[in-house]
Structure formats: C-alpha cells, structure tokens
Amino acid sequence: MKRNAIVLAVVVLALVVMVWAGVVNYRHRKAEEAKLKAIQSQMITLGPPGAPSPAAQQEATAAANNPLVGKIAPAFTLKDTSGKKISLADYKGKALVIDFWATWCAPCKVEIPWLTKFRDQYASQGFEILGVSEDDLDAQSKAELAKQEKDVATGAGKLGINYPVLLDENNTAKPYGGIDALPTTFFVGRDGKVVASTVGLADKDEIEADIKKALATPAGQS
C-alpha cells in the first residue's frame, strides 16, 4: 500500500513538472514573438528628417506590389570586402538572396544569424546569399574610403557572416527600387527572376519559405 502511494506521488510530481515545463516554454515563446514584433516595429529607415514613417514606407511598398517580382533582377558588379569584383551574372543558375543591410542596422543583426544558417543549410542545393552593404562610403577620399571598407569587413566578421559582402559604391540600390529601409531583401530564382521581396525584418519562417520558392524555380524558366 505504501509502495503504491509512493508510485502515485512520483507520477503526480512528474505530471506537475511536465505541465510547468509546458507553461514556461509557452511563456518563453510568447516573449520571443513579442520581442520580434517590437524589433520589426523599429524598422530602420534611411533618409533625411521628415521622411515617411516606417509604417508609411511599408504601406507604400505594399501598394507598389513589389514591381520587381517576376522580373529579371537588375545586374550589378561590385567589389567584395577583399577587393574582388563580383557580378550577379557569376551566380547564373543559382537561387540567390540579395540582402541590402548595414553594420549599424539593428534589425539586420537579428536577421544575419538566420541567413548564415540558411546559407549553410541550402548551399549544397545551389543557393547563395549576397549581402550588399549600404554603409556610407566616401568615394572622394581614398584614405577614408579604405578605412570605411575595412570597417565594413570588420563588422561583417564580428557578425559571423559566411557569405560574400559587397560594397555598394555604385548605388546598386537604385535599380532595386531605391532602398528606403533596412534590411531589404530580394529572393531570386535560378532563372534570374525575383520571386519575392521583403522590407524590414521579416519572420524567420517567411525568409526560409521564400528561399525554398527561389530554389524551386527551374533554371532558364521563361
């Protein structure tokens, strides 16, 4: 009888622990979701004082209906942080993420660990990420430009970026619609066409879904 009581007590205790663990996990998940939404609401904007608010920019982007989606991604050739020239054409036949970011962009720092993980996960399937830095560069001064480029390379290294980081000296952002907020990300299929885009910090699952959409596009599809 005493043994049965002990067993019953142990079972009850185990159930209590399981329920408590579930409650703690649920609260943690809700806290993380709230944190993500808070960061998304603080989307970094570029431009002079008096520029449209983040919400207004998002509405404008939605209203424009992502005009690049379904079109060939604008070509570019930029230097990476080692000075090597890299062209979009070098990745013909691959699925790509073109991510406009900056070392000072807080939402970008949330997104980058996800991107590095996805890069490792899908690289074997013909996937690559190109991080186009929108950090300010002073092309008029060679000495200052060299320092700024080094700062970008250092910042990328500290963030653990494992994909090419390109320096936007040629205002590559312009043919991509003019980047008004960071991060701004374009997902390009194997056929070179933009299949999706996001403005601001997107949900991790949404990013992965758009990567899979790019990977699913057959090369050379018309």
Give a written overview of the molecule:
- With 222 residues, this protein is of the alpha+beta class.
- It folds into two domains: 1-41; 45-215, Glutaredoxin, CATH 3.40.30.10.
- Helices cover 43% and strands 18% of the residues.
- It has helices spanning 2-41, 54-63, 106-122, 142-158, 204-215, and strands at 44-45, 77-80, 85-87, 95-101, 127-133, 165-167, 181-182, 184-188, 194-199.
- Strands 3-2-6-5-4-8-9 form a seven-stranded mixed β-sheet, covered by helices on one side.
- β8 (184-188) and β9 form a beta hairpin.
- The chain is globular and about 80 Å long.
- Residues 19-26, 39-44, 47-51 and 53-65 have low confidence and may be disordered.
Features:
2 domains, globular, Glutaredoxin, alpha+beta, 222 residues, 18% strand, two-stranded antiparallel ribbon, seven-stranded mixed sheet
